[in-house]
UniProtKB/TrEMBL annotation:
Keyword check for Nucleotide-binding: yes
Any Pfam family the entry gives: HATPase_c
GO molecular function terms noted in the UniProt entry: ATP binding; protein histidine kinase activity
UniProt keyword terms in alphabetical order: ATP-binding, Kinase, Nucleotide-binding, Transferase, Two-component regulatory system
EC number annotated for this UniProt entry: 2.7.13.3
UniProt GO BP: phosphorelay signal transduction system
Catalysed reactions listed for this entry: ATP + protein L-histidine = ADP + protein N-phospho-L-histidine
Primary enzyme class: transferase
Keyword Nucleotide-binding (UniProt): yes
Domain of life: Bacteria
Name this polypeptide is given: histidine kinase
Domain Histidine kinase: 1-58
Species this chain originates from: Arachidicoccus ginsenosidivorans
Organism lineage: Bacteria, Pseudomonadati, Bacteroidota, Chitinophagia, Chitinophagales
Length: 58
């Protein structure tokens, strides 16, 4: 995914799909923040994308 899309994927209602609602990643981000965690994305165009979820130490 390119840089411009990566900057927007956690914004509510943003989607690159015609039938997408754009709430999935936004909801994931909010859930992680409510639990004092974090979600990060790393992507290389034409190769793949990975998400890293960081949870607080208990």
């Amino acid at each position: 995914m390119d840089e411009q899309i990566m900057e927007r994927i956690f914004i509510p209602f943003f989607s690159t799909k015609k039938s997408g609602s754009g709430i999935g990643l936004s909801l994931c981000k909010q859930i992680m923040l409510l639990h004092k965690g974090n979600i990060q994305v790393q992507s290389t165009p034409e190769k793949g994308t990975s998400f890293r979820l960081q949870f607080p130490a208990s």
